[in-house]
């Protein structure tokens, strides 16, 4: 069975709609979809690039990669085989990918993809401290192989690596707190009016507390965690680093796809996750983070993984821009 031209376009439009739930840095949603008759294009929206923390576009491209993987997951869950052409025109760097349905294609059932698709609606960034239960090596190995399938390395940090990540993350917080542009951008993206449907609600900012690796202070001087004292939180969390051999948009896009795949797979297994990017936002600290890599390479993003303290969501669900603002339908040829 295969889809005719009309149903292909509307199916791609549906998948782009589903992909709007993807996570992005500060919930900036820096992507645009363009639906053509027989393909859908993913474009970077540079107006949504947070230049103070992301001058080169690493975080923007990682975010667009998560959207691309969400789209692929929606299509795979509905049985479609796709052809993905990444960065198809070197002269048009904002066109990040073009995805088309294989035609004539065979509809294939895939339970793994379906489970990840279902997880797209449940996944969220969980910034609460994690439960005092370690994550099994088997599950962590599974996440590593999920990232490898997207051509990206995911390295689990040992105690020494976690210590270095903690020191560098603390350093990043100090450097960024002293940068006026950063402070203004952070304030802007955490205090968006509700109707804007983007940014991170200030209510989702984690309460101040001592953690193994500090969590970004989204709202400086937030109230302390109720009952928080000298006890160190997150003692059973695992920390991992996405990285790769190259430091270019093609590798960042793949790493974003790997990030989405790992977050969804973790959600399928009931694990909680939260990305940590401030350590890669300050060039000198990002360079220092290379010491934890098993081979020469470039760190893209750190991730905290653990068991949630509760299956109840502890905060507001982040909103998404309306499809009308993120999905363009090209006029029929
Ligand atoms: C590239 C990237 C970097 C991120 N960096 C951080 C971070 O440093 N700290 C944090 O708490 N969340 C971080 N996040 C999570 C986003 O803030 C989150 O995905 C967004 O607010 C949407 O919320 P949701 O994940 O709950 O859907 C990052 C996400 C992405 C994709």
Automatic annotation (TrEMBL):
Concerning InterPro entries, the annotation shows:
Nitroreductase-like (IPR000415), Nitroreductase/BluB (IPR050627), PyrdxlP-dep_Trfase (IPR015424)
* Entries under Gene3D superfamilies matching the protein: NADH Oxidase
Q: Which domain of life is it from?
A: Bacteria
Could you tell me which NCBIfam families the record lists for this protein? Rv3131_FMN_oxido
Protein name in the entry: NAD(P)H nitroreductase
Query: Which organism's genome codes for this protein?
Result: Luedemannella flava
Top-down, what is the taxonomic lineage of the species of origin?
Bacteria, Bacillati, Actinomycetota, Actinomycetes, Micromonosporales
